[in-house]
Design a protein that fits this description.
Blueprint (H helix, E strand, L loop, with lengths): L2 H4 L35 H20 L1 H17 L1 H9 L53 H13 L54 H11 L7 H4 L17 E7 L8 E4 L5 E6 L2 E6 L4 E6 L5 E6 L5 E6 L6 E5 L4 E6 L9 E6 L6 E5 L5 E5 L10 E4 L7 E2 L6 E2 L6 H4 L6 E6 L5 E6 L3 E8 L13 E9 L5 E7 L2 E6 L4 E4 L5 E5 L7 E6 L29 E5 L3 E6 L4 E7 L5 E6 L5 E6 L3 E6 L4 E7 L6 E6 L5 E6 L3 E6 L11 E2 L5 E6 L5 E6 L4 E9 L2 E10 L6 E8 L6 E7 L3 E11 L2 E9 L6 E6 L8 E6 L3 E6 L5 E6 L9 E4 L12 E5 L3 E6 L9 E5 L7 E4 L5 E5 L6 E6 L1 H10 L5 H4 L9 H18 L12 E3 L3 H7 L6 H12 L3 H4 L5 E3 H11 L7 H11 L1 E2 L5 E4 H10 L6 H11 L23 H4 L3 E3 H8 L14
Antiparallel strand pairs: 1-54, 2-3, 3-4, 4-5, 6-7, 7-8, 8-9, 10-11, 11-12, 12-13, 14-15, 16-17, 17-18, 18-19, 20-21, 21-22, 22-23, 24-25, 25-26, 26-27, 28-29, 29-30, 30-31, 32-33, 33-34, 34-35, 36-37, 37-38, 38-39, 40-41, 41-42, 42-43, 44-45, 45-46, 46-47, 48-49, 49-50, 50-51, 52-53, 53-54, ...
């Protein structure tokens, strides 16, 4: 629809905005500025005249007050005349005209998704109070603004406003409106409003010269110089970005889309541009150029989005902690405003809508008691203009201080004596005097909007809605209801799209397109091309048989398909079809830029990730959901594991079955698939803790895959399944790692049909459980197996002996590492500089090898807020890919290693990065105490009372290390102490053949930081132990009886002898002098003299054990969140 056609409807509000008929309080200081240039705009003049007639009564009431204010205004204007005349002498012409804002009241439409409730919100109604200056309407201007309007419009001309037509220029008060309001016309945004990009201008000092004087004028008017937002065109968004990356990981592409949210058609003039959502990112996709622009800023999954009528402004909101509402400029991709505290009581925003003039944003919170908020987002305010909590009961609710009215009459089957059904969507009728609500029964409820008479003297009579008609349009449930031009449009669960006129008479429909259930319809902003001789518009179904001329539009369906329909000729084009269910499986080709994506819906899609081109796909029969995917090292085969236990071996280039029949040896989901280096073996792991092995054999001259054996080797879930190669041969080796803390290696050569031989079993951890493993690159002469655990540690195990050789602090970003891969090298020169790519619960990151605990050698970014399901790395190491599981997206990340290396160099050398991990740093109290304990241990080892000459050294012997660790608050178990000793003793053994028996202070500091709990002592671990070992006492807390507690100490875990236990209690209760056992000169109390019945309570809880027995000060918060 053209602007000329739309303008007359502005007098009564467009498609969701309805003016109140009651009279409003006029602004006594309001004065129109005549502009000859606007005489050609008949629609604007008509609108202004209609508003003037509505204000006549109010102006008579406020005439006296208005005269006084006008007098004040004229005096202030005369005071500024001299300053303005000085600017005239400088050559500045004054012809700028200003169109003041009109006093209006709008009803804001808020379209909602399917709800179980049979009530409907009719709309949002502004409220004004007669004779009150403090309760103005939402668009009322103050006297200061009007005075500035008259002053500037008659004597000066603004510079740098060539982007805005004279009819569209407005001036906002710098005091009341620092960022300005949106222009009344929705096709352009003036510079004095969003051109500032929400940055307040500070007043400048007046100086001599024309340029400074012009700057002062612009500062007074709230106008900044030309900004990117105010001066840009539509084409700037997809201009090639040649800037240097500033992050180690940069999003370059997002595969998939959230089909639960709508797709918007935001551009068509020269290029076809769509807007949709992937996880926590809004995507602006140029179909013709095959480019994406990413609107990144949310930390949670985006829950709703909307666009302005002119498609210029985009609003996105999310659900989760610290939820945000962000308004974007679609021309530049710049966020122009962010609302941080939009829903402090709830979990985020459930739905939102923007007015047709884009000045106001309405949101509904996702809370137990939902709240409707109206935001004047163009003013950059942090609080809503008005709010209303939706009541649980039905009826009209209002508040004296707010300006929202709520009408929700109860609608039941008795209302029309017919089944109504669940509401799916509500819109305003084309006449704006009624509301239409679609139901899943194919019916349309028509609501009348009742308004109090304009002569009402009180505001107790708010507008309300009342059901007046139930229209049975069709049999199929209506899923989409919208309006375009002069049509009311519906989409249903059978894929039909129907068009009705204002009387709900059918005009035309599309039923032959064979689409899935319609989820969203979005029409082009560009009006339909008038029919010509070459046009091929279909006739409508009326008796006249006129041509059905309609704008082009986008169709989104429930099966995650997006189509474009060119109405001239009825040409349906499939833009993309994405997985409609969770994506858990991704795998990159070993030597081509291909990525395979598998979904729970049974679809496997293969993309060329360099050209961003979809190649081929396969959809498996219903019930087969893809859980895991892996290419073999040769790139010819693709192994696929499914949710119901089936294993397929597919041809990598056609996705056809490589074996005649799939393998079905598991009853649960196949979570892991791995191939040996020579592609002779394939192993799988499933949710029932079972490992299965398949091998390639020759039958009748053909190579075929056969099942070998399977074994339920773990007691808990399997986290990794890894093939390797023996050092002394080229034979493959197979290892599995489970949360039962077992690392199991299998003997493939001794395995035979239905028998999988186990070679050895090793325990990897004592308290934490392992999360993943990978072969450590050959950076040293010793071959390692890298294993990450739930305690944020990275452990290196000797590949042959399985001895734990090193324990290092891994990346700590809120959750432990879930998966990791070594980044492939791009050239031989990079063999000695290697990197890890990892994912945790919601982030993807990079780690520089070798791992040494330096926190600056790692970086991470949020990739999927609701959880990462899988990860893959390109064959050349340029890209990393993450699968988002239930958010139905796969994100491609460009890796820029130079940025990470720069961060490491800025973090300092030697021990500087490690000092930052200590409380207080290098000069803090903790480090000074550590030094004191370190050197005191030398004295203690030589004897406190010795008279011999002291030998001061920079080292302490290894036997002293546990005492110093415990003295500074770290209490390692005996197994951890053995690991620490082995790490230090054999640190140089491979290179020198010598064992180390001492350690200096810098090395001690590194060992301490790498082995201690990353977040200090917390109650979480102690509580977990008491939940397992204790019982629930009368107070509802977990407790252990004194007798059971003492028995556990001497019989379970790293149990003590009774003498050791009594000696420890003697020290804890202060019965032994300082240095009791390690200093022979001191005498200690014998353990037999301690009466534990008197010292220990009958019941021991976690708090009593930590504070009263151990004497620790422990925080309840683990410190993991937010790291």
């Amino acid at each position: 629809m053209s602007d000329a056609a739309e303008a007359p409807r502005e007098a009564t509000g467009e498609n969701g905005e309805t003016e109140m008929k009651e009279e409003e309080e006029p602004n006594p200081n309001y004065k129109e500025v005549e502009d000859p240039q606007q005489e050609s705009k008949d629609d604007t003049i008509a609108w202004r005249e209609s508003q003037e007639e509505e204000r006549k009564t109010g102006e008579e009431e406020g005439e006296e007050e208005g005269k006084e204010d006008k007098k004040i205004v004229m005096e202030e204007t005369e005071e500024k005349a001299g300053e303005v005349q000085e600017k005239e002498a400088s050559g500045i012409q004054e012809e700028t005209t200003v169109e003041p804002q009109e006093v209006t009241a709008s009803m804001i439409r808020l379209e909602t998704q399917i709800t179980d409730s049979q009530s409907i919100t009719s709309g949002i109604f502004p409220k004004t109070q007669r004779g009150s200056k403090s309760k103005l309407s939402l668009q009322l201007e103050d006297a200061e603004t009007d005075e500035l309007l008259r002053d500037l419009s008659t004597q000066i001309e603004f510079l740098d406003l060539d982007q805005i037509s004279p009819e569209e220029q407005q001036i906002s008060s710098p005091e009341r409106q620092p960022s300005g309001e949106l222009e009344e016309k929705t096709d352009r945004m003036p510079q004095d409003e969003l051109g500032q990009e929400r940055r307040d201008l500070e007043p400048e000092n007046r100086e001599e010269g024309q340029e400074r004087r012009v700057s002062d004028i612009q500062s007074k008017a709230g106008i900044s110089r030309e900004s990117l937002v105010s001066s840009t065109t539509e084409d700037i968004l997809f201009q090639k970005d040649k800037s240097t990356p500033v992050y180690p990981l940069t999003m370059t592409w997002s595969f998939g889309w959230n089909s639960s949210l709508p797709v918007y058609y935001i551009r068509e003039e020269r290029q076809r541009v769509l807007l949709y959502v992937c996880a926590h990112t809004a995507i602006i996709y140029n179909v013709f150029r095959n480019n994406q622009y990413h609107l990144q800023g949310h930390a949670n999954i985006i829950s709703c989005l909307c666009v302005s009528e002119d498609r210029r402004w985009i609003a996105t909101a999310d659900k989760g902690p610290d939820c945000l509402v962000i308004i974007w400029d679609s021309f530049t991709g710049i966020p122009v405003h962010t609302i941080f505290d939009s829903c402090p009581e709830g979990n985020g925003i459930m739905a939102m809508a923007m007015t047709h003039d884009a000045k106001y944003l309405a949101t509904i919170s996702d809370a137990e008691v939902q709240k409707v908020c109206i935001w004047k987002w163009t003013l950059a305010v942090e609080t809503p203009a008005c709010t209303l909590e939706l009541p649980t009961e039905y009826g009209v609710q209002y508040e004296e201080r707010d300006t929202l009215a709520h009408s929700a009459p109860l609608l039941t089957e008795k209302t029309f004596n017919k089944l109504v059904g669940k509401f799916s969507q509500s819109i305003f009728h084309l006449n704006l005097t009624q509301i239409l609500s679609a139901t899943m029964e194919g019916k349309l409820v028509v609501w009348d909007i009742h308004r109090p008479p304009s002569s009402a003297s009180t505001f107790l009579g708010f507008p309300y809605i009342k059901p007046c008609k139930l229209v049975h349009l069709q049999k199929e449930g209506i899923t989409v209801l919208t309006t375009i031009d002069s049509y009311i449009v519906t989409g249903d669960i059978k894929g039909n799209i129907k068009f009705y006129d204002h009387t709900l008479s059918i005009v035309n429909w599309y039923s032959h397109l064979k689409l899935g259930a319609i989820r969203t319809l979005s029409f082009s902003k560009t009006p339909a091309t008038p029919p010509t001789e070459k046009s091929n518009y279909p006739p409508d179904c009326t008796l006249k048989g006129d041509l059905f001329v309609l704008r082009n539009f986008i169709i989104g369906t429930s099966d995650a398909a997006v189509y474009h329909l060119t109405t001239d000729g009825t040409k349906l084009e499939k833009l993309f079809v994405e997985p409609k269910d969770a994506i858990c499986a991704i795998s990159c080709h070993p030597y081509q830029p291909l990525i395979a994506i598998g979904s729970i819906c049974g679809m496997i899609k293969v993309w060329n990730y360099e050209n961003k081109q979809y190649l081929f796909s396969r959809v498996f029969e219903k019930g087969l959901g893809v859980q895991s995917l892996t290419y073999n090292p040769e790139g010819a085969l693709l192994g696929a594991g499914f949710t119901e236990g089936t294993v397929y071996i597919l041809d990598a280039m056609s996705l056809e079955n490589e074996s005649p029949e799939p393998f079905k040896y598991s009853r649960t989901s196949v979570t892991h698939i791995s191939f040996s280096h020579d592609s002779q073996y394939m192993a799988t792991a499933d949710r029932s803790f079972t490992v299965a092995v398949y091998m390639l054999v020759v039958r009748n001259g053909q190579r075929v895959w056969e099942y070998l054996a399977r074994l339920r080797s773990h007691r808990k879930s399997i986290r990794s399944l890894l093939f390797g190669v023996y050092l002394d041969s080229n034979e493959p080796r197979l290892l599995s790692l489970g949360t039962d803390r077992l690392l199991i290696e299998y003997d493939l050569l001794r395995s035979y049909k239905d028998h999988l031989e186990v070679l050895d079993i090793h325990h990897t951890d004592q308290g934490c459980y392992p999360t993943c493993m990978v072969w450590y690159p050959p950076l040293t002469r010793e071959l390692f197996l890298l294993i990450c655990n739930s305690g944020y540690k990275v452990k290196l195990f000797n590949a042959t002996t399985k001895m734990c050789r090193k324990t290092l602090l891994g990346p700590a970003y809120g959750s432990p590492i879930e998966q990791t891969q070594v980044l492939p090298v791009r050239s031989m020169a990079e063999l000695q500089k290697r990197y890890l790519v990892f994912i945790n619960r919601d982030k993807v990151g990079l780690q520089i090898l070798p791992v040494d605990g330096n926190p600056h050698k790692t970086s991470a970014i949020v990739c999927h807020p609701n959880g990462v399901a899988g990860m893959a790395v390109s064959y050349d190491g340029c890209y990393a890919f993450t699968a988002g599981g239930h958010d139905r997206s796969v994100v491609q990340w460009k890796i820029t290693l130079s940025v990470l290396e720069a961060a490491v160099s800025l973090g300092g050398e030697d021990l500087t990065p490690f000092y930052g991990l200590l409380s207080g740093g290098r000069e803090g109290k903790f480090y000074r105490e550590l030094e004191d304990y370190f050197y005191y241990s030398q004295l203690r080892s030589q004897g406190i009372d010795t008279m011999e000459t002291r030998k001061v050294s920079e080292h302490i012997c290894l036997s002293e290390l546990p005492f110093v660790m415990r003295a500074i608050g770290f209490y390692p178990s005996e197994e951890k102490i053995d690991d620490i000793f082995n790490e230090i003793k054999f640190g140089e053994y491979v290179d020198t053949g010598k064992l180390i028996d001492k350690i200096n202070l810098p090395d001690f500091l590194k060992v301490y930081l790498n082995h201690k709990p990353p977040f200090g002592n917390t109650m979480s671990g102690i509580h977990k132990s008491f939940e397992v070992l204790g019982y629930t006492n009368s107070k509802g807390k977990k407790a252990i009886r004194r007798e059971d507690f003492l028995r556990l100490l001497v019989t379970k875990g790293e149990h003590m002898t009774e003498e050791e236990m009594l000696d420890c209690f003697a020290s804890l209760f202060g019965l032994n002098p300082e240095g009791w056992k390690s200093e022979p000169a001191t005498c200690s109390v014998k353990g037999s003299e301690i009466c534990l019945e008197e010292e220990l309570p009958d019941e021991i809880t976690a708090e009593i054990f930590a504070t009263e027995i151990l004497g620790l000060t422990i925080s309840e918060d683990s410190g993991q969140d937010g790291q």
